[in-house]
């Protein structure tokens, strides 16, 4: 279902058709989203149905990857906070065990 108005459309169509969109990274998905935003409205119902499906899949994958990225960042900072709290507790214990005179 090639769209003649955009030379990048076949790449988006291939990724959605062969399932490689599910392995695409965030940068590639954003590129695909830009491509779909350049496609003009079509009066062809078959093209419009596929186009809507592709747009939905791309949006869903972007949201999923952004959520995963955010969750990983939150876990990282929670670990950093735990390490800092542990160090502070250790220093406090050392001060208690070996007070300065």
What does this structure look like?
With 101 residues, the chain is mostly helical. Helices cover 75% and strands 0% of the residues. It contains three helices and no strands. It starts with 8 loop residues before the first helix and ends with a helix.
Helix content: over 70%
List the helices and strands in order: HHH
Low-confidence stretches: none
Number of E-type strands: 0
Gross morphology? rod-shaped
Find the structural class using helix and strand composition: mainly alpha
> Strand count, sense and closure of the main sheet?
none
The overall pLDDT, averaged over residues, is 91
Taken as a percent bin, the fraction of beta residues is under 5%
Helix tally equals 3
Radius of gyration: 25 Å
Distance between the termini: 82 Å
Briefly summarize what is shown.
75% of the residues lie in helices and 0% in strands. The chain contains 3 helices and no strands. The model has no long low-confidence stretch (mean pLDDT 91).
Question: In terms of topology, how is this protein built?
Answer:
Blueprint: H1 9-18, H2 26-38, H3 45-97
Helix pairs in contact: 2-3
List keywords for this structure.
3 helices, 101 residues, mainly alpha
């Amino acid at each position: 279902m090639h769209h003649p108005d955009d030379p990048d459309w076949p790449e988006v169509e291939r990724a959605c058709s062969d399932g490689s969109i599910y392995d695409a990274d965030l940068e590639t998905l954003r590129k695909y989203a830009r491509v779909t935003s350049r496609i003009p409205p079509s009066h062809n119902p078959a093209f419009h149905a596929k186009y809507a499906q592709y747009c939905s899949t791309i949006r869903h994958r972007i949201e999923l990857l952004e959520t995963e990225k955010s969750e990983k960042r939150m876990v990282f900072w929670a670990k950093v906070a735990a390490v800092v709290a542990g160090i502070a507790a250790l220093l406090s214990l050392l001060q208690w065990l070996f007070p300065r005179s």
